[in-house]
Design a protein that fits this description.
The protein is α/β, with parallel strands linked by helices. It has a domain of 220 residues: Rossmann fold, CATH 3.40.50. The chain has ten helices and ten strands. The strands form two sheets. A seven-stranded parallel sheet has the order 3-2-1-4-5-6-9, sandwiched between helices. The chain has a three-stranded mixed sheet with strand order 7-8-10. Helix 2 runs parallel beside helix 3 and helix 7 packs antiparallel against helix 8. The chain is globular, with a radius of gyration of 19 Å.
Protein backbone atom coordinates (compact mmCIF):
# COMPACT_ATOMS: atom_id res chain seq x y z
CA UNK A 1 0.00 0.00 0.00
CA UNK A 2 1.00 3.60 -0.64
CA UNK A 3 2.90 5.58 2.00
CA UNK A 4 1.44 8.85 3.29
CA UNK A 5 3.20 11.90 4.70
CA UNK A 6 1.10 14.23 6.85
CA UNK A 7 2.52 17.75 7.23
CA UNK A 8 1.32 20.59 9.42
CA UNK A 9 2.69 24.08 8.85
CA UNK A 10 3.27 23.18 5.20
CA UNK A 11 2.95 26.76 3.92
CA UNK A 12 5.64 28.01 6.32
CA UNK A 13 9.36 28.26 5.70
CA UNK A 14 10.32 24.67 6.53
CA UNK A 15 7.16 23.22 4.99
CA UNK A 16 7.87 25.02 1.73
CA UNK A 17 11.29 23.32 1.51
CA UNK A 18 10.05 20.00 2.87
CA UNK A 19 7.39 19.29 0.26
CA UNK A 20 9.74 19.31 -2.78
CA UNK A 21 12.13 17.08 -0.84
CA UNK A 22 9.32 14.54 -0.32
CA UNK A 23 8.12 14.48 -3.93
CA UNK A 24 10.86 12.12 -5.06
CA UNK A 25 9.97 9.54 -2.44
CA UNK A 26 6.98 8.18 -4.32
CA UNK A 27 4.64 8.79 -1.40
CA UNK A 28 1.37 10.66 -1.05
CA UNK A 29 1.63 14.10 0.61
CA UNK A 30 -1.25 15.52 2.62
CA UNK A 31 -0.99 18.93 4.22
CA UNK A 32 -3.01 20.73 6.87
CA UNK A 33 -3.80 24.28 5.87
CA UNK A 34 -5.74 27.15 7.40
CA UNK A 35 -8.57 28.19 5.04
CA UNK A 36 -7.04 31.64 4.53
CA UNK A 37 -3.69 30.07 3.60
CA UNK A 38 -4.96 27.63 1.00
CA UNK A 39 -3.78 29.95 -1.79
CA UNK A 40 -0.19 29.22 -0.72
CA UNK A 41 -0.58 25.43 -0.87
CA UNK A 42 1.26 23.56 -3.67
CA UNK A 43 -0.96 22.32 -6.48
CA UNK A 44 0.25 18.71 -6.40
CA UNK A 45 -0.55 17.77 -2.79
CA UNK A 46 -3.72 16.79 -1.00
CA UNK A 47 -4.98 19.71 1.07
CA UNK A 48 -7.07 19.42 4.21
CA UNK A 49 -8.35 22.66 5.68
CA UNK A 50 -8.11 22.77 9.44
CA UNK A 51 -6.57 24.40 12.48
CA UNK A 52 -4.30 22.64 14.99
CA UNK A 53 -6.08 24.51 17.80
CA UNK A 54 -9.41 22.92 16.80
CA UNK A 55 -9.20 19.15 17.24
CA UNK A 56 -12.50 18.54 15.47
CA UNK A 57 -11.14 20.17 12.31
CA UNK A 58 -8.28 17.63 12.17
CA UNK A 59 -10.39 14.50 11.66
CA UNK A 60 -10.10 14.39 7.87
CA UNK A 61 -6.38 15.16 8.03
CA UNK A 62 -5.82 12.17 10.31
CA UNK A 63 -7.97 9.71 8.35
CA UNK A 64 -5.20 7.36 7.19
CA UNK A 65 -7.33 4.36 6.28
CA UNK A 66 -6.06 2.67 3.12
CA UNK A 67 -2.41 3.62 3.61
CA UNK A 68 0.34 1.20 4.56
CA UNK A 69 2.72 3.55 6.35
CA UNK A 70 2.15 7.05 7.64
CA UNK A 71 4.64 9.65 8.86
CA UNK A 72 3.55 12.90 10.47
CA UNK A 73 5.86 15.94 10.40
CA UNK A 74 4.54 18.60 12.74
CA UNK A 75 5.95 22.00 11.67
CA UNK A 76 3.02 24.28 12.53
CA UNK A 77 4.00 27.07 14.93
CA UNK A 78 3.54 30.74 15.64
CA UNK A 79 6.91 32.50 15.83
CA UNK A 80 7.46 35.96 17.24
CA UNK A 81 10.21 38.23 18.59
CA UNK A 82 7.71 40.94 19.52
CA UNK A 83 7.43 42.25 23.08
CA UNK A 84 3.64 42.26 23.15
CA UNK A 85 2.16 39.03 24.44
CA UNK A 86 0.32 37.12 21.74
CA UNK A 87 -2.15 34.49 23.02
CA UNK A 88 -1.90 32.66 19.68
CA UNK A 89 1.70 31.69 20.44
CA UNK A 90 0.69 29.44 23.35
CA UNK A 91 -2.58 28.38 21.72
CA UNK A 92 -0.88 27.16 18.51
CA UNK A 93 2.46 25.98 19.83
CA UNK A 94 1.30 24.22 22.99
CA UNK A 95 -2.43 23.46 22.73
CA UNK A 96 -2.15 22.82 19.01
CA UNK A 97 0.78 20.45 19.48
CA UNK A 98 -1.12 18.52 22.14
CA UNK A 99 -4.10 18.15 19.79
CA UNK A 100 -1.86 16.93 16.97
CA UNK A 101 -0.02 14.40 19.14
CA UNK A 102 -3.23 13.05 20.66
CA UNK A 103 -4.82 12.53 17.27
CA UNK A 104 -1.62 10.97 15.92
CA UNK A 105 -1.71 8.49 18.78
CA UNK A 106 -5.40 7.74 18.23
CA UNK A 107 -4.79 7.22 14.50
CA UNK A 108 -1.83 4.91 15.20
CA UNK A 109 0.55 7.00 13.08
CA UNK A 110 3.70 4.90 12.58
CA UNK A 111 6.27 7.72 12.88
CA UNK A 112 6.07 11.31 14.12
CA UNK A 113 8.63 14.13 13.90
CA UNK A 114 8.05 17.26 15.95
CA UNK A 115 9.88 20.42 14.84
CA UNK A 116 10.72 22.34 18.00
CA UNK A 117 13.48 24.96 18.43
CA UNK A 118 16.75 25.40 20.29
CA UNK A 119 14.90 28.13 22.18
CA UNK A 120 13.16 25.36 24.12
CA UNK A 121 16.49 24.26 25.61
CA UNK A 122 17.71 26.06 28.75
CA UNK A 123 20.68 28.32 28.20
CA UNK A 124 24.07 27.26 29.55
CA UNK A 125 26.90 29.50 30.81
CA UNK A 126 28.79 31.30 28.06
CA UNK A 127 31.76 28.92 28.08
CA UNK A 128 29.61 25.78 27.68
CA UNK A 129 28.29 24.24 24.45
CA UNK A 130 24.53 23.63 24.58
CA UNK A 131 23.42 20.05 23.99
CA UNK A 132 20.14 18.16 24.05
CA UNK A 133 18.19 17.75 27.29
CA UNK A 134 15.77 15.07 28.43
CA UNK A 135 13.05 17.34 29.84
CA UNK A 136 11.73 20.86 29.32
CA UNK A 137 10.15 23.62 31.39
CA UNK A 138 8.85 27.07 30.40
CA UNK A 139 10.29 28.37 33.67
CA UNK A 140 13.85 27.69 32.47
CA UNK A 141 13.73 29.77 29.27
CA UNK A 142 13.08 33.41 28.40
CA UNK A 143 10.39 34.89 26.14
CA UNK A 144 6.90 33.82 25.09
CA UNK A 145 8.05 31.85 22.03
CA UNK A 146 10.74 29.93 23.93
CA UNK A 147 8.37 29.16 26.80
CA UNK A 148 5.75 27.82 24.38
CA UNK A 149 8.27 25.60 22.58
CA UNK A 150 9.56 24.26 25.90
CA UNK A 151 6.05 23.39 27.04
CA UNK A 152 5.24 21.80 23.68
CA UNK A 153 8.44 19.73 23.74
CA UNK A 154 7.63 18.40 27.20
CA UNK A 155 4.13 17.52 25.98
CA UNK A 156 5.61 15.59 23.05
CA UNK A 157 7.96 13.67 25.33
CA UNK A 158 4.95 12.72 27.43
CA UNK A 159 3.33 11.13 24.38
CA UNK A 160 6.60 9.33 23.61
CA UNK A 161 6.58 7.83 27.10
CA UNK A 162 3.05 6.60 26.45
CA UNK A 163 4.10 4.80 23.27
CA UNK A 164 3.92 7.30 20.40
CA UNK A 165 6.90 6.83 18.07
CA UNK A 166 7.95 10.49 18.09
CA UNK A 167 11.30 12.29 17.94
CA UNK A 168 11.98 15.99 18.40
CA UNK A 169 14.32 18.10 16.29
CA UNK A 170 15.55 21.48 17.48
CA UNK A 171 16.66 23.80 14.66
CA UNK A 172 18.70 26.88 15.53
CA UNK A 173 18.08 30.20 13.75
CA UNK A 174 16.67 29.17 10.37
CA UNK A 175 17.63 31.13 7.27
CA UNK A 176 18.06 30.06 3.64
CA UNK A 177 15.62 29.47 0.76
CA UNK A 178 11.90 28.81 1.04
CA UNK A 179 10.59 31.84 2.92
CA UNK A 180 8.12 32.61 0.15
CA UNK A 181 5.74 34.49 2.42
CA UNK A 182 8.55 36.67 3.83
CA UNK A 183 7.75 35.99 7.46
CA UNK A 184 11.22 34.95 8.61
CA UNK A 185 12.59 37.59 10.96
CA UNK A 186 16.27 36.83 10.29
CA UNK A 187 15.91 36.75 6.50
CA UNK A 188 14.23 40.15 6.59
CA UNK A 189 17.14 41.33 8.75
CA UNK A 190 19.71 39.95 6.29
CA UNK A 191 18.00 41.68 3.39
CA UNK A 192 17.88 44.93 5.34
CA UNK A 193 21.62 44.56 5.91
CA UNK A 194 22.14 44.03 2.17
CA UNK A 195 20.12 47.13 1.25
CA UNK A 196 22.00 49.29 3.74
CA UNK A 197 18.94 49.84 5.93
CA UNK A 198 20.91 48.45 8.90
CA UNK A 199 24.31 50.15 8.55
CA UNK A 200 25.63 48.90 11.91
CA UNK A 201 26.38 45.70 13.80
CA UNK A 202 25.18 44.98 17.32
CA UNK A 203 27.61 43.20 19.59
CA UNK A 204 26.53 39.57 19.95
CA UNK A 205 25.62 36.71 17.65
CA UNK A 206 23.76 33.42 17.19
CA UNK A 207 23.81 30.07 15.43
CA UNK A 208 22.19 30.04 11.99
CA UNK A 209 21.17 26.99 9.97
CA UNK A 210 20.06 26.47 6.37
CA UNK A 211 16.39 25.54 5.84
CA UNK A 212 17.54 22.79 3.43
CA UNK A 213 19.79 21.29 6.11
CA UNK A 214 16.90 21.32 8.58
CA UNK A 215 14.71 19.44 6.09
CA UNK A 216 17.46 16.91 5.40
CA UNK A 217 17.85 16.47 9.16
CA UNK A 218 14.11 15.93 9.65
CA UNK A 219 13.95 13.28 6.93
CA UNK A 220 17.10 11.55 8.17
CA UNK A 221 15.65 11.54 11.69
CA UNK A 222 12.58 9.72 10.38
CA UNK A 223 14.64 6.55 10.00
CA UNK A 224 17.76 7.28 12.06
CA UNK A 225 16.30 8.93 15.12
CA UNK A 226 14.93 7.14 18.17
CA UNK A 227 11.55 7.62 19.78
CA UNK A 228 11.62 9.93 22.78
CA UNK A 229 14.96 11.42 21.74
CA UNK A 230 15.78 15.03 20.83
CA UNK A 231 18.25 16.19 18.19
CA UNK A 232 19.71 19.66 17.70
CA UNK A 233 19.86 20.72 14.04
CA UNK A 234 22.21 23.68 14.22
CA UNK A 235 24.57 25.27 11.74
CA UNK A 236 27.38 27.64 12.72
CA UNK A 237 27.71 30.47 15.20
CA UNK A 238 28.24 33.89 13.63
CA UNK A 239 28.68 37.18 15.38
CA UNK A 240 26.42 39.93 14.06
CA UNK A 241 29.52 41.63 12.67
CA UNK A 242 30.54 38.44 10.84
CA UNK A 243 27.02 38.09 9.48
CA UNK A 244 26.89 41.75 8.41
CA UNK A 245 30.24 41.60 6.67
CA UNK A 246 29.43 38.34 4.90
CA UNK A 247 26.27 39.98 3.56
CA UNK A 248 28.17 43.12 2.60
CA UNK A 249 30.86 41.11 0.82
CA UNK A 250 28.23 39.25 -1.19
CA UNK A 251 26.55 42.48 -2.34
CA UNK A 252 29.79 44.38 -2.90
CA UNK A 253 29.71 46.78 0.07
CA UNK A 254 32.67 47.77 2.23
CA UNK A 255 32.99 45.85 5.51
CA UNK A 256 31.99 47.33 8.84
CA UNK A 257 34.68 47.57 11.50
CA UNK A 258 32.85 48.47 14.69
CA UNK A 259 30.01 47.13 16.77
CA UNK A 260 27.35 48.99 18.76
CA UNK A 261 27.60 48.03 22.45
CA UNK A 262 24.78 45.83 23.65
CA UNK A 263 23.77 48.34 26.31
CA UNK A 264 23.10 51.01 23.69
CA UNK A 265 21.18 48.58 21.44
CA UNK A 266 19.12 47.45 24.43
CA UNK A 267 18.14 51.06 25.21
CA UNK A 268 17.22 51.80 21.59
CA UNK A 269 15.26 48.59 20.91
CA UNK A 270 11.99 49.45 22.75
CA UNK A 271 11.63 52.75 20.90
CA UNK A 272 12.56 51.13 17.57
CA UNK A 273 9.89 48.48 18.08
CA UNK A 274 7.23 51.08 18.97
CA UNK A 275 8.06 53.14 15.88
CA UNK A 276 7.88 50.05 13.64
CA UNK A 277 4.46 49.15 15.05
CA UNK A 278 3.30 52.76 14.69
CA UNK A 279 4.13 52.61 10.98
CA UNK A 280 2.10 49.44 10.56
CA UNK A 281 4.84 46.83 10.62
CA UNK A 282 3.25 43.88 12.41
CA UNK A 283 6.58 42.01 12.60
CA UNK A 284 9.36 44.46 13.54
CA UNK A 285 12.91 43.13 13.39
CA UNK A 286 14.59 45.35 16.01
CA UNK A 287 13.00 44.38 19.35
CA UNK A 288 14.18 43.90 22.95
CA UNK A 289 13.73 40.13 22.64
CA UNK A 290 15.77 40.02 19.42
CA UNK A 291 18.53 41.97 21.16
CA UNK A 292 18.34 39.65 24.17
CA UNK A 293 18.71 36.58 21.94
CA UNK A 294 21.88 37.97 20.36
CA UNK A 295 23.45 38.19 23.83
CA UNK A 296 22.59 34.67 24.92
CA UNK A 297 24.83 31.64 24.54
CA UNK A 298 24.26 30.66 20.90
CA UNK A 299 26.77 27.81 20.71
CA UNK A 300 24.92 24.56 19.98
CA UNK A 301 26.23 21.08 19.24
CA UNK A 302 24.76 18.96 16.44
CA UNK A 303 27.01 15.99 17.28
CA UNK A 304 24.13 13.80 18.45
CA UNK A 305 22.31 14.23 15.13
CA UNK A 306 25.58 13.65 13.26
CA UNK A 307 26.15 10.35 15.08
CA UNK A 308 22.54 9.20 14.80
CA UNK A 309 21.80 9.97 11.15
CA UNK A 310 24.74 11.74 9.54
CA UNK A 311 23.53 15.32 9.90
CA UNK A 312 26.01 17.76 8.33
CA UNK A 313 25.12 21.44 7.71
CA UNK A 314 26.59 23.41 4.82
CA UNK A 315 28.86 26.49 5.07
CA UNK A 316 27.02 29.64 6.22
CA UNK A 317 28.00 31.83 3.25
CA UNK A 318 26.14 29.49 0.89
CA UNK A 319 23.04 29.86 3.05
CA UNK A 320 23.33 33.64 3.27
CA UNK A 321 23.63 33.89 -0.52
CA UNK A 322 20.51 31.77 -0.90
CA UNK A 323 18.67 34.00 1.58
CA UNK A 324 19.44 37.04 -0.56
CA UNK A 325 18.62 35.43 -3.91
CA UNK A 326 14.99 34.50 -3.20
Amino acid sequence: MEKLYLITGATGHIGTVLIPALRGRGARIRILCLPQERQFAPADVEVCEGDVTDAASLKKFFDVSGYGETTLIHCAATITVASKENPQVWKVNVNGTENVMRMAADAHIRRVLHVSSVHAIPERPAHEVIREVGSFSPDLVHGQYAKSKAAASETVLGFARRGLNVSIVHPSGIIGPGDLRQRNHMIRTIRAMASGAIPFAVRGGYDFVDSRDVVEGILACETGGESGECYILSGQYLSVLELQNTVRRIVGKKPLKTEIPHGLAKRIAPAAERIAVLFGRDAPIFTPYAMHTLQTNGHFSFEKAKRAFGYAPRPPEETIRASLEM
